[in-house]
Amino acid sequence: MTQTTGGGCLCGAVTFEVEGAFDAFFLCHCARCRKDTGSAHAANLFSGSATITWLTGKAFVKGYRLPGTRHERSFCSQCGSALPRTDDGMLVVPAGSLDDPVDVRPTAHISCAYRASWDHDLHEVPEMAGLPG
């Protein structure tokens, strides 16, 4: 059975569906991915066979490639949310852009040698169900 997974951007201008299976799910800790996300790592799903259909807002999808590198990101020009892109025939989908659950867990943490200095022992940090205070 082919899985269809929907997603979109924060402001709702862009929506999409991905049809097919994901091959890998990497949490990348490189400095470029940390800059892209403003967080500890990027969380991207990869597929060599899935297809994407832009349902709304395809004109708002913009891209940026860091000059002299293969590092690229796609985003909504209205709200800045990360969006899927195709890189050398591989569909790359930011996990946070998906609205529907996926049946794959992260494959691996990668580029851990570049992990943020504060990104360790996070399982020891207290958890809150909602916002503080």
Structure, described:
The chain is mainly beta and 133 residues long. The chain has a single domain, classed as Beta Complex (Metal Binding Protein, Guanine Nucleotide Exchange Factor, Chain A). Helix content is 5%, strand content 38%. It has 1 helix and 11 strands; from the N terminus they run E-E-E-H-E-E-E-E-E-E-E-E. It has one helix spanning 31-37; strands at 4-8, 15-19, 24-28, 42-47, 51-56, 61-65, 72-76, 82-83, 85-87, 90-94, 108-110. A 5-stranded mixed sheet has the order 9-10-4-3-11. The chain has a 3-stranded antiparallel sheet with strand order 1-2-5, with no helix packed on it. A hairpin with a 2-residue loop joins strand 9 (85-87) and strand 10 (90-94). The longest helix has 7 residues, at 31-37. The mean pLDDT is 95.
What attributes characterize this protein structure?
single chain, 133 residues, mainly beta, Metal Binding Protein, Guanine Nucleotide Exchange Factor, Chain A, three-stranded antiparallel β-sheet, 1 helix
Give the termini distance in whole angstroms. 45 Å
Number of helices: 1
- Please write the CATH class name: Mainly Beta
Strand order of the largest sheet: 9-10-4-3-11
Class based on secondary structure composition and strand pairing: mainly beta
State the low-pLDDT regions, or none.
none
Please tell me the total number of domains: 1
Q: What's the helical proportion of residues?
A: under 10%
The backbone outline, from C-alpha atoms, is globular
From the 3D structure, determine the CATH topology: Metal Binding Protein, Guanine Nucleotide Exchange Factor, Chain A
Sheet-strand content, in percent, reads 35-45%
